[in-house]
Amino acid sequence: MTGSITVLGLGPAGLERLRAGDLDRLVDPAATVLLRTLEHPAAAELAALRSVVPCDDLYETGDDFDQVYEAIVERVVDAARSGDTVYAVPGSAVVGERTVPLLVERAGAAGIPCTVIPGESFIDAACAVVGVDPIADGLQILDARGLPDPLPLHLPSFITQIDTPLVAGDVALTLGRVLPDSFEVTMLDRVGDDDATSITMPLADLPRAATGPRSTLYVPPADVGWLGLVATNRILRTECPWDAEQTHHTLVSHLIEETYETVDAIGALSVEAPGGEPDLGAYAALEEELGDLLLQVVFHANLAAEAGAFDVDEVAEGIRRKIVHRHPHVFGDVVAEEVDEVLANWEELKNVEKGRESLMDDVPAALPGMARAEKIQRRVATVGFDWPDDEPVFAKVLEELDELRAVRSDRERATGELGDLLFTVVNLARHLDIDPEIALSRANDAFEARFRAMEGAARRSGSRLRDLDDRSLEELWDAAKIEVSAIEGRSSFTLEPERNEP
Prior knowledge:
By secondary structure, the chain is an alpha/beta fold. The protein has four domains: 5-120, 3-Layer(aba) Sandwich (Cobalt-precorrin-4 Transmethylase, domain 1), CATH 3.40.1010; 124-222, Tetrapyrrole methylase, C-terminal domain (Methyltransferase, Cobalt-precorrin-4 Transmethylase, Domain 2, 2-Layer Sandwich), CATH 3.30.950; 226-325, MazG-like (Helix Hairpins); 436-488. 51% of the residues lie in helices and 9% in strands. It is built from 18 helices and ten strands. It has helices at residues 20-27, 41-49, 65-80, 99-110, 122-130, 165-175, 225-239, 241-245, 252-267, 280-306, 312-325, 328-331, 339-354, 369-381, 391-406, 411-431, 436-460, 470-488; strands at 5-9, 32-35, 53-54, 85-89, 114-117, 140-143, 157-160, 184-189, 197-202, 215-219. It has a five-stranded parallel sheet, sandwiched between helices. The protein has a five-stranded mixed sheet with strand order 6-7-10-8-9, with helices on one face. α7 (225-239) packs across α10 (280-306). The longest helix is centred in the middle third of the chain and has 27 residues, at 280-306. The protein starts with a strand and ends in a 14-residue tail after the last helix.
C-alpha cells in the first residue's frame, strides 16, 4: 500500500537540537527513513540508533548533480510506494536542498502525500557567530558553485558548499576580481556543533583553508564593483569639493573626452576581437577607459537622482526593457534568422516608439560627419536601399573620384564631389564591415609614427626635412615604413597614405 512522505530537516548539528516531535518521526520503527547523506552529525547518530537508507552511493552514479538528485528523488518515491517514508536532509529542508522541491513535485504527480518540516537552518547559528542581524544588516546566501555575475557584495554574504580546496580556490578567484587580497573573510565549519570552528583570514589565504561538507564562507559587506561605484560616487558628491560643484553641463566635456579615449582603446584591439588571440595589454587599456566612461554615466544618473528625475537603476531598467522590446525574435514569437531581418525589425520598432515620419528623423545633426554618414546608411539599408555587395561600391568610389577630378578647379563643385566621395568611402567601409573611424585613426597613427621616424633619421644625419629633395624624402619615408613596421611586428600597414604631403 502506498504511504506518505515526510521531508524533515536535521538541523545544523546533532540529534539533541531536534524538537521532540521531529525526533519521534525519525525513530518510529513503522517508517522507512532515507538520508540524503550520512556526512552530518545528526544523520550519523540516527544511523547508530536504527536502520536507515543512505543515498551517498548515488553521488557516484551520476555525471552531474542534477542526475544525482533525480536518482535520490526516485529512490524516495519508490520507498513511499511501499509505506510511510521519512526523507531527512542536513540543516533546513527548505534552505539549499534542491532535492526537496523536486521531490514535492514528483510526489504530487504520483498522488503521494508529502509534508515538509523545515527544521533548524545553519543560517541562524552562523549569523550568531559572525554577529549579523539578517533584518537590520541584510543578508545574502550564495552557492559556491553558482556565484552570480556580476557579484553583489554590498550585503553580508554567506557562500555555502565550499566543500573542497578546488571550490575554495574558485571562490577566491571570483572574489579577487573586486576585493583586495588583504580583505578579511571568515571560514565557518561544523556550525552548531561543540567542535565548530570560525577562522578569519585574508582572502589570499582562502585557497589553502581547510574545507569540508559543512564549510561556509562569510564575506563582510564591501562597497565594490558596480554597486560600489554608485555608492562611492554619491559619497564624493557630498564630501569632495570638485564633485560637489559639478552639473550635467560641466560634465559634458568629460563625457566627450572619455568617449573618444574609449574609441581609441577599442581601435588598439585586433579587428577580430573578441575573436582571435586576445591582446591582454590592449584589453587592460580598454578596461580602464570603459571605467572612466562608466563613471560619467553613473555621475549623470546620480545628479538626476538628486533632482528627483531618475536614478541609475531606472536607467539600467529602461534600457533593459528597450532591448527586450526590440528583440522580439529572442524574447517574443517573431522569427528573424538573418542579421538584415533583425536590423529591419529594430528600425521598425523604433519608428513606432518614437513616432517617426521618416527614417532620417532623430539622426543627430551634431554627429561627426563620418559617424552621421554611417548612421544614415545603416538606417536606409534596413528598407533595402543599399547595394547587394561591396563590388558596386568599389565602382562607385572610382566614379566619384573621377567626378571630383573633373571639377577640382571649381572649389564649390569640388566640395560637393569630395563630400560624395567621402560618403561613398564610408559606405564601402560599412560593406567591408570595417569601422571607418577606427580605420582612419589607425592610418593617422601609422602616418604619425612613420613621420616621426623620418624626422629622427633626418636629425641623426644632420639634415632638416625641409632642405631635402623629393627623392631623399621618399627614401626616408620608405625606410621609416620598414622601421615602424618592424617595431609593430608587421610588414606593412594596410591603409597606407600617399607620400604627397607638403
